[in-house]
Structures are given as structure tokens and as C-alpha cells.
Model the fold of this input.
Amino acid sequence: TTTVYYEEDAEQKHIEDKTVAILGYGSQGHAHALNLHESGVDVVVGLRPDSSSRSDAEDAGLDVTTPAEAASQGDVVSLLIPDTVQPDVYEQAVEPNLEAGDTLQFAHGFNIHYNQIQPPEDVDVTMVAPKSPGHLVRRNYERDQGTPALLAVYQDATDEAVNEGLAYAKAIGCARAGVLETTFQEEVESDLFGEQAILCGGITSLVKHGYETLVDNGYSPEAAYFECLNEMKLIVDLMYEGGLAEMWNSVSDTAEYGGLSRGDEILDDHVRENMEETLEQVQNGEFAREWVLENKANRPGYTQLREAEKNHEIEEVGERLRALFAWSDE
Ligand code: NDP
Ligand code: MG
Ligand code: MG
Done:
């Protein structure tokens, strides 16, 4: 079973005499920097000279310098910039400034797991990955609430990696909610699979197939939009609150019987086989290779896919409908 750590398992002393360099001040970066700072940890933010977030960080009372200078000052260097730019920034600004015993810290394991960053053997390599967008990590901290996080150690050169990672997780507020122990491999593979098969890819594909089926059979785009996209949120909110059971309890018996008897006919064994295939491409590195090459080539396939998604009829219908109804800006 999975180990879960809480406040009493983490001691902030393991990070208190250290300087934490936060590279990037975006979604995760601003939340980690501000929460650490307010927990009394020494923080220095590393940003490129023309960064649009520089004044935000400075106005919040944080020390801001270049990524290279921050990495040199930091005992813990947290790479909180987009995963696709991490390898270059690591090579140019971080690697030359890592000393034996420093910690290289991530919020997602892609670059380590797929060998896009290969750290020296004398540093700790850890991950504290909040399971939520950065603005919630920040908001929960301000309200004395927590955000669950994953903790993983890839390399433990000092024998202190777990204690330090827990101290970091506590200082950003995550130990209030719970810190789950995992590995880089598990975090990366389950994360990629989840976003591809279910959360981002699966759900949008399901919505589009449903919309197209109704519209192709003569139903109005407006009715199809509400049925296939808008109501999704209500259903997901119920599952979030009380699992599948709460959702089934809240819908009509007709909806429950129809859903239970037809759901697995739609998403049948064939879908399950496709999921196995998707997972395999994550596990054997095929997806990672494709994505790295895609970025090296300036994203030709990605741009095309984005364009096609933007031009789907459901987007135009939705924009029109959302403007007409009061719930649009709730
Ligand atoms: P963001 O896209 O929000 O990062 C933006 C920041 O990165 C900005 O400060 C930007 O500065 C800086 N930046 C961008 N490019 C460069 C560059 N070439 N050199 C230096 N700085 C650069 O990142 P996220 O917070 O979304 O992601 C950070 C990490 O956290 C990733 O590993 C991600 O997988 C992980 N993660 C993200 C979650 C999320 O909710 N977003 C959830 C859990 C993990 P500038 O103003 O100069 O552009
Ligand atoms: Mg250093
Ligand atoms: Mg993800």
C-alpha cells in the first residue's frame, strides 16, 4: 500500500538552512515561491531578463535574478518552467551551477524519466508534484488548507532526499492535505496515460463523437451542445463529490438504467484495447520520442491538431450559446 505523509511526518528544519531557487514564476512557480517564502524559507526566483513575470515576483517581495545566478545560490533548485524548455535551461543555466549535495527538484518527471535531463550522480533528484494547478496550491495555502501532492526520489546522494522533499512539501502547504509516495516512473506514466486517455483526450473525443452523432441525425446543434458538453460539468461535479454512486443517485432512474446498460456498449472492449495501446506507447517511450521530435521540428503536427480542434463546429456553437446565457460568467 502507498505511504501517505502528513504535517507531523515532515520537519521544516530540513529545508530551513537552505536556499531554494525557483526557476520560473508561472502556474507552479509563483505558488511554490510565495508559499515557501511565507513559511520562512529562503527563496530566490530565477527568470530570464525580459520575463513578463519579473515585476510580479518583485512586487511580492521576492528576490529575483537570472536562472543561472539563482541555480548557483540555490541548494535546492526547483525547475518550474515548461517541461519542453527544461532541458535547454538545465544545460545552460543549471548544470554548470550544481554543486555536490544540491537538490534538483521537479514538479513532473518527464525529463528525468525519459532521459532528457541527466543530472550528475552527486546531487539529489526529487519530485514534489502538487496534484492541482498552481493557483489552487497558492489559494489553499492562503486559506490554511492543503493541496495533495506526490513525492518521489529518483536519486538520493545525501541520504536526506526524503526528509528534504517532505520539508519542501510541508512548506508549500501540501502536507496539510497529504503527500503520497511514488516513483518518477509511476508519476510520469500514469499522468501521461490519464491526460491522453481520459482527462484531456478521452473526454474531448467523447464529447465530439456525441455531438456529431446527434447533429448528423438532424438534432439541433444547440441541443447537442447542451447535452454533450455543458452538462458534463454537472455530472463530473457529482462524481468528484461522492464517486460514481453519488452521480447515479442524483440522476433519474431512467438515466441510471440507460447509462448502466449502454455505457459499456459504447466504450467497449475495443476502447479498452486502444487504451492498452496508448499506455504501451507511454511505457516504451514512443510517445515521449514523438513529442520531443515534434518540439525540435517547431511543432508541425501539434499546430495542425490544434487548428482542427479550434475549427470544430461545437466550438462555434458553444461560443454563441455561452454569450447568451447568464451562467456563462459564473
Ligand atoms: P508555466 O508554463 O506556468 O511556466 C511559466 C514560467 O516559465 C514563466 O515564469 C516563464 O517566464 C518561464 N519560462 C518559460 N520559458 C522559459 C525559458 N526558456 N527560460 C526561462 N524561463 C522560462 O509552467 P507550469 O507551472 O505549468 O509547469 C511547471 C512544471 O510544473 C512543469 O514541470 C509541469 O509539468 C509541472 N506541473 C504543472 C502543473 C500545472 O498545474 N500547471 C501541475 C503539476 C505539475 P517568462 O515570463 O520569461 O516567459
Ligand atoms: Mg547551488
Ligand atoms: Mg499532466
Q: What stands out?
A: Strands lie at 4-5, 19-23, 42-46, 63-65, 76-79, 103-106, 124-130, 149-155, 179-181. The chain has a mean pLDDT of 97. The CA atoms of residues 252 and 258 lie 10 Å apart.
